[in-house]
Design a protein that fits this description.
Elements: E1 26-32, E2 46-52, E3 59-63, E4 72-73, E5 77-83, E6 91-98, E7 101-106, E8 109-114, E9 119-128, E10 137-143, E11 149-154, E12 170-174
Parallel strand pairs: 4-10
Antiparallel strand pairs: 1-2, 3-5, 5-8, 6-7, 6-9, 9-10, 11-12
């Protein structure tokens, strides 16, 4: 196995490689050769190269712009989901949904454009070519594209007051979704 010593087996045509713990992730080479009772050894052993990939592919989510200090955006945000697979089986797909809409895209990256008027949560994970599903993750975008509106209710427009008369001022403010 790999560059290890030759091991003797009887006439078995199937063996378990790596013992009870299996083989570690990465590329491996299985080599087999025949010996006969007279002591003749096969001069050109058969080989098979293969890859073990039991590692879940990681995914990162990167927004096109950072939110303000309160965590809010005031314009649409694109979130780039990027997956990688360190063990060589490549990323087969990235699955994601925004709130309740399910979508899948293939390749080793996807750009998700979040078009929401309130809070939008992207739930995502990647699957590699070996069938390993990555952990499901979430990324939340808080989006408020509505400017705050302030209105003066007192004093009323055009009101007249006497000299030294106390004037009470009152106003109302609609701050939109972000408060």
């Amino acid at each position: 196995m790999d560059d290890g010593d030759w091991k003797d087996y009887s006439s078995a045509t199937s063996v378990t490689l790596g013992g009870a713990d299996g083989l570690p992730d990465g590329e491996h080479t299985f080599r087999v050769r025949a010996n006969d009772a007279a002591g003749n050894v096969d001069g050109s052993p058969a080989e098979s190269d293969f890859t073990i990939d039991a590692t879940k592919p990681p995914v990162t989510a990167t927004p096109s712009r950072e939110p303000n200090l309160a965590g809010w955006h005031k314009a649409n945000v694109s979130v780039t989901l990027e997956a990688g697979d360190c063990e060589g089986s490549d990323v087969a797909s990235i699955s994601y949904k925004i709130n309740d809409a399910e979508t899948a895209t293939t390749g080793d990256g996807a750009t998700v454009s979040v078009e929401v008027t309130d809070e939008g949560t992207i739930t995502y994970h990647a699957t590699d070519g070996a069938g390993n599903d990555g952990d499901q993750q979430t990324f939340t975008v808080k989006l408020d594209k509505t400017d705050p509106v302030i209105s003066v209710t007192d004093p009323t427009e055009g009101a007249t007051y006497d000299f030294e008369q106390a004037v009470e001022a009152d106003y109302s403010c609609d701050e939109g979704q972000s408060g």
